[in-house]
Amino acid sequence: MRIVSGIQPTSQLHIGNYLGALKQWVDIQNTNECVFFIADLHALTVPYDPKKIQESIMKTVIAYIAAGLNPEKSIIFVQSQITGHAELCWFLNTICPIGELQRMTQYKDKSQKFKDNINAGLLDYPVLQAADVLLYKGEAVPVGKDQEQHIELIRTLAK
Question: Which residues, other chains included, contact 73 with Cβ-Cβ below 8 Å and sequence gap of 6+?
């Protein structure tokens, strides 16, 4: 089975990242074809320091490997280095109803939290996530409960 997932390089990874994602990824890389990425394009949807983003990306790669992800068993890369993510996102945007995006719980939550920075990227986040998964023909995407609506949107867009 092909697994696709990523973590944003927004700050230092913490025990929640490890227990919620990385530990699980280390286990599943032995029995699945895994694609793990640093979701730097997703990180641009909320306030960030442009001077620190590259450093955060590098720290996230180091954390992936330190946690036990093996580049010989899994594909590991930085999302923005593969232009296909943004390109497929654009095509998916042309078939994605805006009403679907406006109903997303995560969009509503983040637009309340970042009232001074409600941007199109924040609204479009789930479409980029769909591109992330569909580009690699992902069959499973380990996500938290807050992302379940996004997974349903991915299924809809894939059809």
Answer: 29, 30, 34
d(CA 118, CA 87): 23
For residue 20, the one-letter residue type is G
Please list, in sequence order, all residues whose beta carbon lies within 8 angstroms of the beta carbon of residue 33, skipping any fewer than 6 positions away: 1, 2, 3
Q: What is the DSSP string of 9-56?
A: -SS---HHHIIIIIHHHHHHTTTSEEEEEE-HHHHTTS---HHHHHHH
Q: Give the strand pairing for 33-38 and 74-78.
A: parallel
- Pairwise CA distance, residues 65 & 109, whole Å: 32
0.85 exceeded by the pTM? yes
Q: pLDDT tens, 80-128?
A: 999 999 999 999 999 999 999 999 988 888 888 888 888 899 899 999 9
Q: How far is CA 104 from the centre of its chain?
A: 16
Residue ranges of domains in the chain, CATH in brackets = 2-158 (3.40.50.620)
